[in-house]
Automatic annotation (TrEMBL):
GO cellular component annotations of the record: cytosol
Domain THIF-type NAD/FAD binding fold: 14-247
Keywords per UniProt: ATP-binding, Nucleotide-binding, Nucleotidyltransferase, Transferase
Catalytic reaction list: [molybdopterin-synthase sulfur-carrier protein]-C-terminal Gly-Gly + ATP + H(+) = [molybdopterin-synthase sulfur-carrier protein]-C-terminal Gly-Gly-AMP + diphosphate
EC number: 2.7.7.80
GO terms assigned for molecular function: ATP binding; molybdopterin-synthase adenylyltransferase activity; sulfotransferase activity; thiosulfate-cyanide sulfurtransferase activity; ubiquitin-like modifier activating enzyme activity
Family: Belongs to the HesA/MoeB/ThiF family.
The protein's name in its UniProt record: Molybdopterin-synthase adenylyltransferase
Task of the protein: Catalyzes the adenylation by ATP of the carboxyl group of the C-terminal glycine of sulfur carrier protein MoaD.
SUPFAM superfamilies assigned to the protein according to its UniProt record, in alphabetical order: Activating enzymes of the ubiquitin-like proteins
Xref: InterPro entries: ThiF/MoeB/HesA (IPR045886), ThiF_NAD_FAD-bd (IPR000594), Ubiquitin-activating_enz (IPR035985)
Amino acid sequence: MKPPEITQQQAMRYARQILLPGFDLDKQEQLLGSRVLQIGVGGLGCACAQYLVTAGVGGLTLVDDDTVELTNLQRQVLHGESDIGSTKCASALASLRSLNSECRIDTIDKRLDAQELEKILVQFDLIVDCTDNLVTRNAINGACIMAGKPLVSGAAIRMEGQVICFHPSDNAPCYQCLSTLFAEQDLSCVEAGVMSPVVGVIGAMQALEAIKILTQYGESLISRLLLFDAMTSRWQEFVVPKNPQCEACCEKEG
């Protein structure tokens, strides 16, 4: 589908992006014509969604079945004190619409099972995983493999964060290749804690990587893992290999 033609008002609004070398009007139009599915509107999701919306993503659908609690306010910046008890989707929707009324924002305030995920993914150009548990991440990964959709994955806990992107292909790894390789522990912020700005850093990185993939701008983190150590403010990068015995991506190819 041809991207929408940018208006004069939009050109003014997104002028600072359009001025970037190699981005220009064409990339902004691609962004305005894109549709993103973001799963999770917690710490990562709040940071990611606000930058996707303000950057000019045309459509964003938020998925989360949780409600706002007092303990969320330390890091989930789209929710305020008056939102306690509301669904996170409703709270985020109100905040995001105040940032950019032109962006089409939809919400799904329930947990999607594997079949629902596979069915809905065909409507989107890219999926952003802002969830906080291994089971859900693996389910999202499997659905992205089946639908052939790019996935931007992020995680943050304690004083550590990570971000990586995946794009289904014959030789590329998937999220399950990564989680098996690093023997990821299924811990949550409730159990281990997290520093507020850490989720902001990783969520913002997820938004950046999503924009880059959607517009084919710059070099994305496809199959490259960035680890952030907030205690020392250092980043490390690792190339993630494909696991030839992976039950998720190798099973589909077979």
